[in-house]
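Continuing from the previous page of notes. For each protein in this section, the sequence appears first, followed by its structure tokens. Read the first protein now.
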Amino acid sequence: MTKPKKIYHYLDDTMYLPLLFILLFVLSFCFEDITTLFTGYGKIMVSSSILLTDYFAVGGMGATFFNAATVLLFNLILLHILKIKYNGPIFAGLMMIVGFSFFGKNLINTLPIYLGVFLHCYFRRVPLSNFTVVTLFSSGISPLVSYCVFGTNLPLYYGIPLALFCGILAGFLLPALVEGALAFTGGYNLYNVGFVLGIISVFFYGIFNLLGFDVNLASIIDDTHRIVLILLLFVICLLCILYGLSGGKKTIISYFNLQKETGKLISDFKINYNNKVIFLNMGILGLIACGFVYFIKEIPVNGIMFGTVISVIGFAAYGIHLRNVLPVWIGAFIYILISKDKFASISTCMALFFVTSLAPLAGEYGFFIGIIAGFCHLLINPFFIEFQGGFDLYNNGFCAGFVAFFIHTIYNHFNWRKKLLQRFKKIEK
């Protein structure tokens, strides 16, 4: 007689994110009444959403969770229509979408960009499924759309067409530029699309300045929900770990094998490792992140930081694990310790988590190079938000692209010379 399966044995790739949608949807109605929720949701829709706009401060906690739920649901429906099979990049993209729905993304400012990617595929006569990952990450430039309508002070009959044009153009250009960016960064920047979106944002920022529009960086933050958000993150990560450990000894062995992966793009962990290993990886990384925000009191806990942690742990299926993340985190902490500002800037706190974008450098070149990468990222990151005007939500991906290019190019140059010298010595002997 066969033993009955436990409930978690019925989970497959298509169920985790729908369950996350249900969680977000239920949480929406736990903090505010329906009238307040939808009033706040309306405020989120008409926000300029420029970095750094905490939707908790704009629309309230319930409305923000509702926004994340609706954006996730839309993308799940889109993937279902396209009949896309879930993999590491898709999972990471969806988690990134959820995370940034707490500070910058909503349905209104996402749709024109998706339409631009669709038109790119239409004119090239390729299926949209070929650029699914690019489509998911493309919404990183969504504040561009919101700014055109709600941040330029133009009448709606000018602002809406301008938003549609800019959003569609950004989405249309993105797939072509992503291919070149991968060669530029060498595959060592996990947030590669963020790098491209930063470049696109720079051009739009320059054009808006030329036209006389004021593009002002936002600093709208609500830090009044610290305990609730930390507890929620802790519970999510703990559930991930418990689900992972349900796989027993095999899962633990596979988890240690996962640590040998470099994480260099394109590293789809879901190809070689089962879901329990991925979720164990997510939970462990998430608990460490929870430890940062709980024990380091200077780190504010708001919609921005909550979304940041959610976004980062999604990449546990697509490039990051404990061994390649620790060096870049150490490098980031070294910078913060010697910096006079410490954790005073919310962008610095975000960079501490998103420095994980450079984890493949540590995975490929070792612990010391990882420390250098983390330090360099925090060193130059403050300049990049102003450089791109706040339109690129994935600002750390923009910064990490230059760090990855600099380090891997220099390293390979001198490593090549070392190999060449060794060959000459062998010839002399």
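Done with the first. The second protein uses the same format. Note its length before scrolling.
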Amino acid sequence: MVKRLTKAKIESELKKLDGWKLERDFITKTFEFKTFMAGIKFVDDVAQIAEEEEHHPDIHIRYTTIKLSIQTHSEGGVTEWDLGLARRIESFLHQNPVTMR
């Protein structure tokens, strides 16, 4: 069973993740892409990762801007599971550069 992390622990771990921040009870990051289709491709890639992890972020699409929000809903906040998903997304981006602004 995963446990909700303290704010201090979350903020400490987010320092290791470029651009991620704590918003209320979620960790979030906004990505900007050069084209709409580049953003949609990224969403598809994130969906594949999420399925493998069996942990799905909230995804907000606004033209070339994609915002991911991650939380363990059963815990009502951020757990190590959420940080792991964010790490996996970042690792994917470093291995598979996309057309970002």
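What the second structure shows: Residues 7-95 form a domain with the Gyrase A; domain 2 fold (CATH 3.30.1360.20). The mean pLDDT is 94. We return to this in next week's lecture.
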